[in-house]
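Aim 2, interim progress. The first record below pairs a target sequence with its structure tokens.
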Amino acid sequence: MNSHPSTITAFSALGQLFRDYTANKSSPNLLIEKLDSTLISASNQNKWFTKENLDFCLRSWGNTLTENNIARWLSNYRLQQTTQRLGLVLAGNIPLVGLHDLLCGLACGYHIEVKYSSKDAVLLPFVVDFLCEKQPEWQGKTHFTDGKLAQFDRVIATGSSNTARYFQYYFKDVPHIVRQTRNGVAVLDGKEGEEDLKALCIDIMQYFGLGCRSVSHLMVPEGYDFEDLFLALYEHREVIHHNAYANNYDYNKAVYLMQEEELLENGFIMLKKDNALNSPIACVHYSTYSDVAAAEKSIEVQQEHIQCVVSNCLKNMLPFGQTQHPKLTDYADHVDTMKFLLKK
């Protein structure tokens, strides 16, 4: 297996930059100041990119992009240079949502054309400029556009379930990965402790619930008492002061009340009994199960719509609080991006 130390060095330098920034060093250098300016621009572009969410994103990526993690990840693949061109169509729901695809493309030697989201147009260009300084061989290999992709041999396109149908048709003649709406699910058995529930609330509330790994659906036993969960959620009550979130809360609540839907709510988030995995902003759906085996079966049946599952009562699931801390080997939609890019 090829180790590609220069790739490891460049990626780990990015992780170190993110760690330095989130550590709030007292004497920022010019690079830190440039990153700070970029984050301000990103926040101005996208109302959902609050300082808290941007800091969380950088902290999570900083903890992931360590030399050991990167080396262990890349050791699973035989990397080689290629003249092929990779097209990336990116979403803009959470900060740096396309970073993993970009890193995979660079590691595999591709020329990359990125169609960025207008909602996240400045963060990745900053990252590319930084990485190219650390690895000069990547200079000029990544281009950004706000229009249609022009040249590509392979494509990774991320969007909603509606745009996925368009992507499947448009890119049908080239190898492609098309990602659509997926969600995080939590399976509870009522035995969760206070710390479990606090961690679960982070899985629900981080990024305002906009991420594909955000928990938007709870599976609970019949007769489940939500009181302790609401107590844990109360820690996030300040979210209602975010104007866009508050507007969504008010709108969705009004719609549900007009439809005479039965709701559990506390003034900033609603719980609605609904089998759908995807829920609107400021609302979490829940369903009930008769026994754990039934919950497992439901997860299995809906696997293609689920990005991740957190639970203490099911085996081999993520611990509470970990949905927004994916490892480098946690590929979106459970499709190994590196294998796709390295396939002849």
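The second target in this work package is listed in the same format:
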Amino acid sequence: MKKIELMKKSLSKACFKIKKHSPELLAAAGVVGVVISTVMACKATTKIDEILQNTKSDIDTIHNAMIDDSLKEEYSNNDAKRDIAVTYLQTGIKLVKLYAPAASLGLLSITGVLASNNILKRRNIALAAAYATVDKGFKEYRGRVVERFGKEADREFKYNIKAKNLEEIIIDEKTGEDKKIKKDINVADINDHSDYARFFDEGSPYWEKDSEYNLMFLNAEQNFANDRLKARGYLFLNEVYERLGIPTTKAGQIVGWIYDSDNMVGDNFVDFGIYNIDRERSRDFVNGYERVILLDFNVDGNILDLM
């Protein structure tokens, strides 16, 4: 009994894995099938000459019988026309049989590729729906936070902003001596960022060992992104990644920004998070002390369902 249960369990897991990877399997089988069907069609083509030669020989025989005076009483023109039609029909059947295996395999292969695409399409729709549900719930939660505690509290919760006590040395105007003073500043958690945040560093072909140039470049790209957003009404995150020399992602294909002056979905603008004063590294980058910055984009979420 245990062996049977283990076999059932193993079979169930195997079936699940096959179902899970069915798009890849169908696509691979489709590609291989197309190649094989092409080879089969090429081999079948080499046999066409023999069929056509036999057909030509039969047609010539019929024509010779038509012009043979000794056969006019036994073989009329109607008989000849009937035999020619039968010969062409038989030739067509032979050609169909010759190419039928290759054509059938090719059709099955194309069907497999299309089936793979349909499965992936249904899965992507399901994922997009699930993401939309989560995104809607999160936005509603933030809306309740803003309604009850205000926008400043929402910003503190979002970026995990905490007060930090720092000592600063200043020169006393009266005595001219150094003087230590304490002040509180708001600082965001350096590890708290969205899943879409990316570093702009030497990995990008547009990065330079010049902090002033990098700041100027990022400001220009942010302005360009906003212009494109306003012109088209939408912008995908991958489009921004590409212009910054950052590798694109699967999420970047559906996540982005929507611009609608009459019905604001998000912020209605693109922000790279360059001037986030709550991040120490961002302040250092803007002030020229750092050449690398973590960009955190204010995307509106899945915009496919919003267009």
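The radius of gyration is 36 Å. This observation will shape the mutagenesis plan for the next reporting period.
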